[in-house]
Design a protein that fits this description.
about 375 residues; alpha+beta; 5-stranded mixed β-sheet; about 55% helix
């Protein structure tokens, strides 16, 4: 049960968030302690820049105001660097005859009231050609070797993760549009649809890079939210992104996405997200993809507020190896009630990986799948 102090802080935090996102009036008068709580939560959720646009003219503790202003300015500067790098990569791949699209981060940032306020992560860029073709291109471009004494590129199911450059910018080159689902049936439909949409719908924006259609973004980012929520956690930054996508989309876009939710295995996550958007950001019902799901929505909100951005602040992350393993497995079992079909495939994939990597884990003397060199 949420105690009254925590409930008050959450209400103030979400009121500020609505002020930043859609201009709703802020009627509270926070105490100094409440301001510090709001600042701490904004940091946990990677929303310092977004909220600063709402609080910059409000009265708050001076030391915190200065710190917040400094961090907001740094976020703005990093966004400018990220936009320039995204435009450079777009030109670079175009020079090799490849169509590209910037996914998520910088494509979403341009939709915010202040396009430089969204706290950036890495650059996700889709490059046409498919897995082997794109990997060969990256080898020819010298991107697969890495720099001296630096992290080497790694390849996953859907992208190549390139190490951070001199400016601290990390790039993920996608040869598939998304990580998708673990359920192979829904994932096949999802990937085919996404590939068809991204190929036909890319357009260049004023920042100098290409973005996919809003239909594509709504489906791809819903799948991204589902994958991260079920595997570890999501934060309010992803929720804010989705709010702006729905605000920017047309009725035709929303109808197309809504009609495919069950086919793509995204219906439960969509229902939870619609509830959260309605309660947290007052999203108009006419903009929703489906009926809000109160049960799953409250579950998603609890996890977001407990775990912060991508679940990095969840208490289980602070535990030792065996305790962390137990808590993660218990969470996965509990999530069976959230989405049984998808979580069943999470378990299948996990145990397949455990068996497949047994010789390597013995060789490297580790229990963790993450500690095995790729």
């Amino acid at each position: 049960m949420v105690n009254p102090t925590q409930k008050t802080m959450d209400n103030i935090f979400f009121m500020l968030l609505r002020t930043a996102m859609n201009g709703e009036p802020f009627t509270a008068n926070p105490t100094d302690d409440e301001w510090h709580s709001v600042y701490a939560e904004a940091k946990r959720q990677s929303l310092l820049g977004v909220l600063y646009s709402a609080v910059c003219r409000m009265k708050m503790p001076r030391d915190m105001a200065l710190q917040w202003a400094t961090e907001a300015e740094a976020i703005s500067g990093m966004n400018q660097l990220m936009n320039k790098e995204a435009a450079r990569l777009t030109r670079l791949f175009a020079g090799h005859g490849r169509q590209t699209a910037i996914l998520k981060g910088q494509a979403n940032a341009r939709l915010y009231p202040n396009p430089l306020s969204r706290q950036p992560g890495d650059i996700d860029i889709w490059v046409e050609g498919g897995r082997e073709n794109v990997l060969q291109l990256l080898r020819e471009m010298g991107m697969m070797t890495g720099r001296d004494n630096a992290e080497k590129p790694t390849t996953s199911y859907h992208h190549v993760h390139l190490p951070a450059n001199e400016q601290g910018i990390t790039v993920e080159v996608h040869f598939r549009p998304a990580s998708g689902n673990l359920n192979p049936l829904t994932n096949h439909r999802l990937q085919q649809w996404l590939l068809g949409r991204i190929t036909d719908s890319c357009q260049q924006v004023e920042q100098g890079f290409n973005v996919p259609s809003l239909q594509f973004a709504l489906v791809m980012q819903l799948a991204h939210i589902q994958r991260h929520f079920l595997s570890g956690g999501i934060g309010l930054r992803q929720v804010c992104d989705y709010y702006l996508l729905l605000q920017s989309a047309t009725e035709e876009d929303r109808h197309e996405v809504s009609s495919n939710l069950k086919r793509f295995g995204l219906a439960h996550t969509a229902g939870a997200l619609m509830w959260l958007l309605e309660k947290g950001l007052h999203l108009d019902k006419e903009l929703m993809l489906c009926q809000p799901d109160n049960y799953r929505g409250e579950w998603m909100l609890r996890e977001i507020m407990e775990g912060g951005n991508f679940g990095h602040y969840a208490k289980r992350q602070e535990q030792g190896l065996w305790r962390r393993f137990f808590l993660s497995k218990r969470r996965q079992m509990q999530l069976m009630r959230f989405d049984f079909k998808e979580m069943a495939w999470v378990e299948i994939k996990y145990w397949k990986a455990i068996i497949k990597t047994l010789p390597k884990r013995i060789r490297y003397r580790t229990l963790s799948l993450k500690d095995i060199p790729r």
